Amino acid sequence: MTDTQKPSAGTGLARFLGACHRQPVDATPVWFMRQAGHGIPEYDEMRKKYDILTIARTPELCARVSLLPITTYGVDAAVMYTDIILPLQAMGLNATLDPKIGPLVANPIRTMQDVEALREPEALEGTPFVMEAIRIVHNELAGQKAVIAISGGLFTLALYCIEGRPSRDYAFTKSLMYEHPEVWHAFMQKLTTVISRYVVAEAEAGATAVQIFDTNVGFLGPSAYRTFVQPYTRALFDALRQTGVPGIHFGTSTTGLLEVMAETGGDVMGIDWRFDLDDAWAKLDYKHAIMGNLDPTLLLAPWEIVEAEMHDVLRRAAGRPGHIFNLGHAIHPASNPDHLRRLVDAVHEQTAQAR
Asked: What is the 3-state secondary structure (H, E, C) of 239-307?
């Protein structure tokens, strides 16, 4: 941690870092995945002028959007407004983002020749705008709130690179993994090198923590994960650990993978709403901090239901040091923005009273 990151007691930064390290804090920290922009009129106005990748690639715009939830919702951390495909573009992949479909790659990876053609740029060469945006947000928050940088997880990134678009059956990926493992491993080695450089640069630019979104990793069973993903993800977290910045490891539908993912690395394990938080934490033997895990679709319900489910999550956390309150995945676009602010205040108030 740099000198400018040393938190003052009672700040969002202190809460967040304390929870990452499983230390007692004055109240449970709160942030929401994909919180930037949802329900905020200023963001809606910006999106009329700029697409998502333009905002993400323009440091001043990216910083502005990333900071909006701090004042609007009172969260303890700003999460950087970016997209996981940005490092892929720097590798020479023709990666774009369709708001209705998701990431698209026009030149997918299918052969060893495809792998050999990929570049392995340094992060400051390939994505300097990401690091500049982090520096702006870090300086703006002045040690009062945390700054969370993100990266796609290696398996999730590999899926998009191989399939070329979101898929239901991942046929090309399965074929490459099992029929051409030499191609898979060569590609994963290059991808690991690039993404490791990327997360280290994010940490050095001023991120308080880096979240690895391996959203689709629940597609694998434990044996396949150990063979095809674990060595590379472990190397990624090892690289991040050298910076002293905490890593958050998140995936969805990972009920059968939680323990093996915990072996792989990360200071904080993010869980989706398919777990009961107390059961998930017990599976981790309480050796990791835990993040989660309110069902995002509950934000469409009346406040009384949201509040009851919030109480249930906090009851399961039982006041143990190391809980970061979050949703079990991204904010639903139709969420009631008033619920988000009330949720932050309610979590802070309840957990402060309980200590």
From this structure: HHHCCCCCEEEECCCCCCCHHHHHHHCCCEEECCCCCCHHHHHHHCCCCCEEEEEECHHHHHCCHHHHH
How far apart CA 127 and CA 94 sit, in angstroms, is: 15
94 prior amide bond cis, ω within 30: no
Q: What does the pLDDT read at residue 6?
A: 59
Strands 247-250 and 209-213: parallel
Per-residue DSSP letter, 76: S
Q: What are phi and psi of 268, to 5 degrees?
A: -125, 130
- Tokens for 216? 């689709």
Query: CA-CA distance, 192 to 200, in Å (whole number)?
Result: 12
| Strand-pair partners of 148 | 79, 209
User: Which tokens go with 255?
Assistant: 């009920």
**Which are the contacts of 4, defined by CB distance < 8 A and separation ≥ 6?**
138, 142, 143, 206
What is the largest distance, in Å, between two alpha-carbon atoms of the chain? 60
Tokens of 128: 């300097």
Taking the model in full, what pTM does it have? 0.95
pLDDT at 332 over 70: yes
Give the chain's mean pLDDT. Answer: 95
Residue predicted with more confidence, 55 or 101: 55
Share of the chain above pLDDT 90, in %: 91
Query: DSSP per residue over 312-333, as a string?
Result: HHHHHHTT-TTEEEEESSSPPT
Tell me the per-residue pLDDT of 7-25, one tens digit each, with 9 for 90 and over. Answer: 677 899 999 999 999 999 9
SS3 98: strand
Which residue type does 124 have? L
Concatenating the DSSP letter of every residue in 107-155 gives S---SHHHHHT-----HHHH-HHHHHHHHHHHHHHTTSSEEEEEEE-HH
> In the chain, what are the domains?
3-353 (3.20.20.210)
CB atoms closer than 10 angstroms to residue 108 = 17
Output phi, psi for 33, to 5 deg. -65, 135
Q: Per-residue pLDDT tens for 238-263?
A: 999 999 999 999 999 999 999 999 99
